[in-house]
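Complex record, two chains
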Amino acid sequence: DIQMTQSPSTLSASVGDRVTVLCRASQSISTWLAWYQQQPGKAPKLLIYKASSLESGVPSRFSGSGSGTEFTLTISSLQPDDFATYYCQQYNTYPYTFGQGTKLEIK
Amino acid sequence: EAQLVESGGGLVQPGGSLRLSCAASEFTFITSSMTWVRQAPEKGLEWVSSISDSGRTYYADSVQGRFTTSRDNSNNMVYLQMSSVRVEDTAIYYCARERSSGLEPWGQGTLVTVSS
């Protein structure tokens, strides 16, 4: 199985900050990577697919990059609504696997 | 707008069975692969199972042999039959449409609690 490792597990930041979350795959997944945002008590929401494509309706302050085994999610200028938990997910091979999550907290 | 609605969750004793349902609307269900993902209390997301448009199924090792995913294309439904459930199966279960662009949309989730 492909293991997905996110870092950091928790990230403290302020409104207006630029933040980056890292996701590493245990083997190459090309660009078959998605990023999701989950607000407390809500279902996850797709932000980025194919590593760097922005899902329709998602603000342009979100961006993704990477290929192979290393990927990043960047939020260019944090807004109050962005404080949530973020997950990466590989969909290159079954079993699909998620990273453990990164909780973005208000500093 | 594409929508998914899960149902069937509840309290079940260890070793028991439960069937979850997911109703799909506003997208072409018959050509869509579907996925179940679960989230244990205060934990991260765990992929559980997927079913292709042709009915081929895939399972996580943790549920292989105990859970069965099926679909009814006539009624735009996907099911997760859970058997021999364990305390560690306690979670919110989400269904989602699987695309080449990831999982979207997701349902609101249904809570399964395994306890005696």
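Note: The interface with chain B takes residues 1, 34, 36, 38, 43-46, 49-50, 53, 55, 87, 89, 91, 94-101 of chain A (CB under 8 Å).
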